[in-house]
Design goal:
Blueprint: E1 5-11, H1 16-32, E2 36-42, H2 49-57, H3 62-74, H4 96-108, H5 111-126, H6 135-144, H7 149-157, H8 160-174, E3 182-185, E4 190-193, H9 198-210
Parallel strand pairs: 1-2
Antiparallel strand pairs: 1-3, 3-4
Helix pairs in contact: 2-3, 4-5, 4-7, 4-8
């Protein structure tokens, strides 16, 4: 059996387009099963929310203008519900704390638990408008999953979770990732970025599965 195709998937937990893309990721896993190795990474898009709002949205209504943009973007997607008060109450200051906790879960419990936790955090933010930058909120969500917060905390305390997160951020820069979500295929030779349709993603992956680029060269 051939090795599965590696797909590096970069998102920011606060990105609405990554929330919209969640259904596509689930369908990819269902359709391609063991043919792909989907590896989840985090990229810094909302690391400093206040500055992002001032610089990119200051002339377009600030937080309220961005909130309307998020709701309008998600409105066309029934499987990506958004709370009416998103970005209007309990505004997260950063996505980094959530990313950090997710890397700690990955190290303490495993990749599957971290992926499941990422989906839950997205739901808590986009559907329930919870402030997932708050470490107290994050600890509560982790505990409600039945995960051992003390084990997760140990990876925060010893710096290993931070090292893993910085590894993601640095790798994103090395691979030329400009935003969220981004799909990196064929060892970085191909990057799909943004609101890319499911069939486009699938077609690109299936083409690589049929004709891996490491089997021949046109050079």
């Amino acid at each position: 059996m051939s090795q599965p195709l590696i797909v590096d998937y970069y998102t920011d937990i606060l990105c609405v387009w990554a929330w919209i893309a969640q259904r596509r990721i689930e369908e990819l896993n269902k359709t391609l099963s063991e043919k792909i190795d989907l590896r989840f990474h985090y990229v810094d898009v909302f690391g400093d929310v206040a500055t992002k709002m001032a610089v990119q949205w200051g002339a377009r209504g600030g937080y309220e203008g961005f909130a309307e943009h998020v709701k309008a973007s998600a409105a066309a997607f029934d499987d990506a519900p958004v709370h009416p008060a998103i970005w209007s109450q309990d505004r997260p200051a950063t996505s980094a704390n959530a990313h950090l906790v997710l890397k700690a879960i990955q190290l303490a419990v495993g990749c599957s638990a971290s992926v499941a936790s990422a989906l839950l955090l997205r739901k808590e933010f986009f559907v329930n408008a919870k402030n997932i930058a708050d470490l107290t909120v994050l600890a509560q969500i982790v505990a409600e999953q039945g995960l051992d917060w003390n084990a997760v905390q140990s990876k925060l305390d010893d710096g290993s979770a931070m090292a893993a997160l910085m590894g993601d951020y640095q790798k994103a820069k090395q691979q030329g990732i400009h935003g969220s979500p981004s799909y990196v295929l064929d060892g970085g030779r191909q990057v799909l970025y943004g609101n890319v349709g499911y069939r486009v993603i699938l077609a690109n992956i299936e083409q690589l599965l049929k004709n891996p680029t490491d089997e021949a060269s046109w050079c």
